[in-house]
Give the backbone structure.
Amino acid sequence: MSIRTDLALESAQRVSLTGNLGGVSQERRSYASAELDVTEITVETDKAQQLLGKPKGRYITVESRSGAFSSYSDKFTERVGALAGELAALHEIPDRVLVAGLGNRNITPDSLGPRTAARIFATRHIKMLAKDLDTEDMREVSVLTTGVMAQTGIESSEAVKAVCDRVKPQLVIVVDALACSQLSHLGTTVQLCDTGISPGSGVENARRELSQSTLGAPCIAVGVPTVADAQALADAADSEDFARDFPGLIVTPKSIDDLIWRTSLMIAAAINKALHPSLTQEEIDSLIL
């Protein structure tokens, strides 16, 4: 049975167990005050891209040292700052940005995207209409929630591309829930990458990718693993029968409501901080409807 995962870190670990993983570089760093460890993987060659099943580019995995993000942490501010810094380092933040939340708000494990998008400070309308305000230092930010094709009949990539054609963003930031294959990563990691995303690929329901080639603008993807493959449970329990008896099963943690709530707040705050560094979190909170 193939292991389903959206995490480049897991793909690299799995391939490295079977041989030399050439064309891939790794760098590790940490944020002691935020209790976060970071692994940056760069897929550099076509061969490595084929082996990992991940497009060439940079993949940053941010892991909590203190358990799942579903639990309260007094390191929220530090973690927001760390994620904002990683986001800004992944790609220079331009003047016009589109933030797109993917997923189904009515299905909790898949609702990270729309719940994050609801907390992003949109400014395009302010810059267009508030002529009496000084918005010189304010980036032009648009926000979109796509829903899923079963609800709308429209591919997420089609919806985002249509908006891109209209608002002409210089960068697209896509937020979506991810799947992992190692239970230790479930709800404890955030992945950022500059290669875009294929929604649903980790649960074998891949839709058309969102990337620079399809959208016409650089695309950063941000996500948190909210489900895991049943094969991971079988490996952890040393049970071959489990995966055979429950093919296609994916699992989500009991604390999924808290996980989505806390991670959507954290990711939204990090994106807002990266896009509007001159504003405090309190100021941004007061401006979001």
About this structure: Residues 256-275 form the longest helix (20 residues).
